[in-house]
Amino acid sequence: MKRFLLLLLPLLSLPLLFQSTPTEIIKLRTFDALVKKQDPSGNFVILNITEEDVAAEGGYPLPRQRLAEIHQQLLEKGAIGVGWSISFPQPDRMGGDDAFAEVLGWGGSVLAMFTDSSGNYPKSSGTVVKGEDIGGIVIEGVVQNLNKLQEQSLQGIATAPTDVDNLIRKVPLLVRTTDNQWIPSFATQIYKALFGVKTYIIKTNDNGIEEISIRGIPPVKTDSNGMKWISWVDTPQTDLQNMDVMGRYVIIGVTASGVMPQLATPAGLLEPHKIQAALAESILIQDSPYIPDYAIALELLIYTVSVALVWILISYLGITWGITSSIGIMALTAFTGFKFITGGLLVDVTWSLISQFIAGSTGFYLRFREQYKLRQLIKKQFEHYLDPAQVDKLQKNPELLKLGGEKRYCTYLFTDLRGFTAMTEKLKATEVAYIMNRVLTVQVAAVTKRGGMVDKFIGDAGMYIFGAPLDLDNHERLAIEAAQEILEEVERVSEELQAEGLPSVAVGVGTQSGVASIGNMGSDTRFDYSAIGDAVNQAARLESATKDRGVSLLIGDVTAEKSGMDLKELVPIAVKGKSKPLKIFTVI
Length: 588
Hints:
Blueprint: H1 2-17, H2 21-34, E1 44-49, H3 51-56, H4 64-76, E2 81-84, H5 97-104, E3 109-115, E4 126-130, E5 137-138, E6 142-143, H6 147-150, E7 154-157, E8 170-172, E9 174-176, E10 182-184, H7 186-195, E11 199-205, E12 208-213, E13 220-221, E14 227-229, E15 237-239, E16 249-254, E17 263-265, E18 268-270, H8 272-284, H9 295-316, H10 319-342, H11 350-382, H12 388-396, E19 406-417, H13 420-426, H14 429-449, E20 453-458, E21 461-466, H15 475-499, E22 507-522, E23 527-532, H16 534-549, E24 553-556, H17 557-563, E25 567-573, E26 582-587
Parallel strand pairs: 1-15, 1-16, 2-3, 2-16, 3-7, 4-11, 5-9, 22-24
Antiparallel strand pairs: 3-6, 8-14, 9-10, 11-12, 12-13, 17-18, 19-21, 19-22, 20-21, 22-23, 24-26, 25-26
Helix pairs in contact: 1-9, 4-5, 7-8, 9-10, 9-11, 10-11, 11-12, 14-15, 15-17
């Protein structure tokens, strides 16, 4: 079992270590389901240029003169700034660029830029890096706005990369150019415009970016590439007719069909300006979710400890308690993951749960197979020695049996068919076998009925044990009762044999109690469950002495004393190796 665990743990850790696509998708979808829904901050509003607006304005794009009017109206209605999630790289055919540039210069304005592979970059923003200048996503170029527009406004990257399932969840707050300069995102520039800040502070560690600071708001935690996880806030929305923007920053985009693409997010298909609004909201949320640098290390720790625990519990507590406690471990793991994610710490436990199930199922199978083999071994070992009820009890509770040998106090009973050697010389082999089978059958029935075990048959002799392999209360008395029944039943069989024209039969029985070594004994390739000890020898000696004492049953002193029966004491017999004669008894 240990070998399997040592093989299973590193094998199941591979999808976690190498972030395979299926496990990454499962993790991301779990985050989507559990990340806490946040309320809007009240600082932002989305202005949609709708299908009706485009129709009313005579089509898209709207003239820059009209955009200047919209921008001016928003400021007049109390907007604290305006961000256009639209790029303006070409001049306006209708000559409205000067008017648009003028209103952009009134302050708090941000224009969008989108990435390309041109190798062109805007002038880098001022950045201060605390730590090694590492981390960040490198872009190959940017489509910039007209010079006269960017001179009057800030501009930021509005591109949003997708995850492995093609959904947008994280957006970089800053990106890196090929010459190691930094360009801020659209949402980041909004805060720079609002607070009049000229410099961003990037804090790094050994893994990359740790957090980004803008004077005026708390530091924003990111992943090593400067990516911020978006909280999908339901930011209030308005339109050109209502312009409900008082005291809020306005983020403008087009929702008219066929103009701006809709991008897939966990919150559904959204236009770029709505994604940027959600990012801007997320920057202000103190417990907004993020993936810490130590996430993989923590996930590996949870995986290793929990999977190993499930395996150990299944392997060593048995099937019922093992499964129950393993379910408890899985529930605790799930609860831990839930608390992490809802608290904003994006640590994944889904693969740990899957691995726990795989490990638990594997451990359960191996445990079941081991138990099955043990039960088959028990059945094979004892089906000829014990009655079926006792075999079934051993199979259901193998711990009752200590295979391999143990010291155990039992009662031992020996029988022997008298005159058997002379009988075999006079009778046919089939007749000898018939008589032996009849005599031994009644002996076995009398013994097993009282919970005794058939140890072995040696020719015409039988050896039986009371008190092994299962505990048996008052086995001394039960052995005597079995001996009495054997004598009665053999006498009945003898009468039946005579009626069939066969010789009469009789048996001698000896029994004694004591401690002996009991277990599987023999060679490596052939063995039997048996008993060896002084009490066993005394029981055999008593059976042999029945002929000399003229009785059919001799009972040893220990058996007689502990049986509680009223017995007849006979003259003691000498026992080889003993200084004192052995007290013996028989039934009255």
